[in-house]
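Let us work through a complete example step by step.
Step 1: write down the sequence.
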Amino acid sequence: MKAIQYRRIGAEPELVDIPSPVPGPGQVLLQVTAAGVCHSDAFIMGLPEDRYGYGLPLTLGHEGAGRVVEVGPGVDTIDLGTDVVVYGPWGCGMCWHCAQGMENYCSRAAELGIRPPGLGAPGALAEYMIVDSARHLVPIGDLDPTTTVPLTDAGLTPYHAIKRSLAKLRAGSTAVVIGSGGLGHIAIQLLRHLSPARVVALDVSQTKLDFARSSGAHETVLSNSDAAGEVRKITGSAGAALVLDFVGLQPTLDLSMAVAGVGSDVTIVGVGDGQAAAHVGFFRGAYETNVAVPYWGARHELMELIDLAHQGILHIEVERFSLDDGVEAYRRMAAGTLQGRAVVVPGL
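Step 2: predict the structure and record it as tokens.
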């Protein structure tokens, strides 16, 4: 089968032919119908050899959708022909966090060598993929897998981040979204649906700000040296109740802390190398500002997102690529010319 793999440290991914997988006990084989391309992939492929720990060759793709075509021995909870998306942060299924459906925080995954698809285990950027357990599959019914697959990460991660702060997003409060791309434009829609807060979006170009407006942002601000002051003009002395930083570089973290209000949440979602530590302490920023770095989301939250998708409240902007052109999606992402999320469709 065809697959897109990262094969050499520092090189771009390659389209290759590899053997089709066969499901073992407890496993499920999917014929992939859609796979998302993510900045996290670019991050791990940019790591130097002494920091890279995901194995080579690595079939990429931690956002996956597919149709169940074969199951291994012992699998009796999913029917052949079911269209599904894959819950990516696999855990042991037995620890306290996993028992809550929060396999993204599994306490034993590292010691057991459990890795997410595309981030250690073979991923979805292929014609077929193995899923380790049927519990990691969420049926999608008649939803389009191409526009649904981004929900498994680009939707799930901001959904989890927003849910943990909903009590702070009262009427009259402000939520700030830094970076309105693949994750950010979904976060804007979720904030508008789940809370009464005013949504202020920041990005580096007017085109991106227009995209944020079309996604539902009430206000937009160009992300430059004047951005903190411009946001403060909107929020007033209260500052922002929630800041979602989908970039994670030092300038955006500095901006996040500068606009955060008393008792606010600053949630760092982007995988940049910035640090907020310099802003935490007495006389450094607003009192009781809570800084968090969430990772993905819980299984039940992905189910909730699929239910929201069935209600038609989310519009996921995607650009489609065939598997043969999948490497080009990474080039476009690196060039910053994508709008929304890149999705590889093997059958295209």
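Step 3: interpret the result. The first strand starts at residue 2 and ends at 6.
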